[in-house]
Specification:
Elements lengths: L4 H36 L34 H16 L3 H7 L6 H7 L9 H7 L5 H13 L5 H9 L6 H14 L2 H13 L3 H20 L14 H14 L3 H14 L15 H14 L8 E2 L7 E2 L32 E2 L2 E3 L7 E3 L4 E10 L3 E10 L4 E9 L10 E2 L4 E4 L15 E6 L12 E5 L5 E9 L3 E6 L4 E5 L8 E2 L1 H6 L4 E2 L1 H7 L2
Parallel strand pairs: 2-7
Antiparallel strand pairs: 1-6, 3-16, 4-11, 5-10, 6-7, 6-9, 7-8, 8-11, 11-17, 12-13, 13-14, 14-15
Helix pairs in contact: 1-2, 4-6, 5-6, 6-8, 7-8, 8-10, 9-10, 11-12, 11-13
Length: 524
């Protein structure tokens, strides 16, 4: 070895070793940091306002128990995330959420639960999370800003700028935020963006947001603010706020109500379908308050009149990224015991899991026949009646929607028009389920095909019914003859709206439900 080659060889060895040493140091530091967080996450004191928390030891690395939540590559980080997910799903806790914001890999886990929090303390870290480079995290954080009622000018301007994001899911959620909180100066940005938008669902969200802004401008004008008093319970307070928006609807009242809504509760109580009635009055009042502050009427269940229908030749999916051959939701036998659906077959396609605030559109031209809010375990429910080019009628059903259903019974809708958005997880508004869309296809007209001579069973006293014979069928009524010979006219029934069938009904194929994914593929 010559004197000249010695230093050169030393530099070559150094240049080769240094990156490996640096990488090893980074792995060591990250591992120590993960171990520290795994311990600290469960040392955060419980928040009494959120009902406390049950302390858990982090389990061994494994898949998250929540459907749709992806595993992370680092086992220690995944261990921490899984334990956080289980604890937060069991008992919400604001202090735990605030601590988790400090973890660099908690974005997706945080956005799973953010939409059910109302606390202003989470607003600032959620704004930072909304700047994430991950589009799924960014969209989820925007959903969190909606629930937090973050209407500051800085937040609104930032979210409006996301209408230009390269990611359709982010553009769609930005439009959903403006559907709730946009002001007149946002209108031109939305209309201009909707014209240039090529994504079906983002465009539908932008068009509805622009319409919502115009609606609010006509509802909320200048005037003195109402001063609603706080009730003894959350339900009473929400009702007082809804009453203020109804009796003194102006901009000042709306701003005051938004401010009060932020302080009533820290978090949406975990409302599962099995115990949903425990929060019925509270949930109904909150749902009404949200609709009114966004400029939507406090709608109730209603059925639209029959109408002529245009024939359709093509259909579009109800939500983004809908088709998934691995998803076997339709026709699934519920084997789990102890639920109202045990032993029954599922006759819809559950999709868009954990996509709170995701835009839901009409799959084709049609007439809205049913709109309902808070319907049993359906949450927000819309049924649209369609007709094929050959004139055969069928219906599409959209369940577990949030409060801002944007159509009314009897309204004609176009293919790709927004109907609403996926409701928040475990909320009264979505029926008490983890956020998802229940999408169904029923292969008949909305009203049941009553026939002359048919004997129908009419409800009587609780648990009793009595027979009546159909003597004449009109467009939306039937004439019936009772056992005593008297004649009565009653409305035609649409009693097929269900999510589950008994095995004998499902196997007999008499109820005309069909696999939604297969049905839509025929019309692509």
């Amino acid at each position: 070895m010559t004197p000249a080659t010695g230093p050169a060889l030393s530099r070559a060895i150094r240049d080769w070793l240094c990156p490996w040493i640096s990488a090893a140091v980074r792995v060591f530091v990250r591992t120590c940091y993960g171990l520290l967080l795994s311990g600290l996450a469960f040392a955060v004191p419980p928040n009494p306002a959120a009902g406390g928390m049950r302390r858990l030891k982090p389990d061994l690395p494994g898949e998250s128990h929540v459907p749709g939540f992806p595993a992370t590559p680092a086992s220690l980080t995944r261990n921490y995330i899984d334990a956080f997910m289980r604890a937060e799903a069991d008992v919400p806790d604001e202090a735990r959420m605030l601590h988790a914001f400090n973890h660099p890999d908690m974005g997706l886990a945080l956005t799973t639960f953010l939409p059910r929090y109302f606390s202003p303390r989470l607003a600032e870290p959620t704004r930072k999370l909304a700047r994430s480079p991950d589009p799924a995290v960014q969209a989820g954080a925007i959903g969190g800003l909606i629930s937090l009622l973050d209407t500051t000018p800085e937040t609104r301007t930032f979210v409006r700028g996301l209408l230009g994001s390269p990611r359709p899911v982010v553009r769609g959620h930005a439009a959903e935020y403006l559907c709730w909180f946009g002001i007149p100066e946002d209108y031109r940005f939305l209309t201009r963006s909707s014209v240039a938008e090529r994504d079906l669902h983002a465009r539908a969200a932008m068009i509805e947001a622009a319409a919502a802004i115009k609606r609010r401008a006509s509802v909320f004008r200048d005037g003195p603010a109402a001063n609603p008093t706080a009730g003894a319970t959350a339900a009473e307070t929400y009702q007082q706020l809804a009453n203020a928006l109804t009796e003194q609807a102006n901009t000042a009242t709306r701003e005051r109500v938004i401010g009060r809504l932020r302080l009533v509760e820290v978090v949406e109580p975990v409302t599962r379908y099995s115990d949903r009635l425990d929060h019925g009055a509270r949930g109904e009042a909150l749902l009404t308050s949200h609709r009114l502050l966004a400029g939507y009427p406090a709608a109730t269940a209603a059925i639209g009149p029959p109408a002529s229908l245009p024939g359709i030749r093509a259909l579009v999916p109800p939500v983004r990224d809908y088709f998934d051959p691995k998803r076997k939701s339709y026709g699934l036998l519920i084997e789990q015991e102890g639920t109202p659906f045990s032993g029954k077959y599922h006759v819809g396609d559950d999709c868009a899991w954990q996509k709170d605030h995701e835009t839901v559109v009409a799959i084709g031209d049609g007439i809205v026949r049913l709109v309902d809010l808070g319907r049993r375990s359906w949450g927000g429910l819309v049924v649209v009646e369609h007709a094929t080019a050959a004139g055969k009628r069928f219906c599409s059903l959209y369940g577990h929607l949030g409060p801002l259903i944007s159509v009314r019974p009897g309204q004609a809708v176009r293919q790709g028009q927004k109907l609403g958005a996926v409701g928040l997880s475990y909320s009264h508004a979505n029926g008490g389920y983890l956020a998802h869309l229940h999408f169904g296809i029923h292969g008949s007209a909305f009203l049941r095909p009553d026939r002359v001579g048919e004997v129908m069973q009419l409800p009587g006293r609780p648990g009793k019914s009595f027979p009546a014979t159909v003597t004449a069928v009109q467009e939306d009524t039937v004439e019936i003859r009772l056992e005593d010979g008297s004649i009565r006219t009653v409305g035609r029934r649409a009693d097929w709206t269900t999510g589950y069938l008994e095995p004998e009904e499902f196997n007999a194929k008499t109820e005309r439900w069909t696999d939604p994914q297969e049905f839509l593929r025929k019309f692509q």
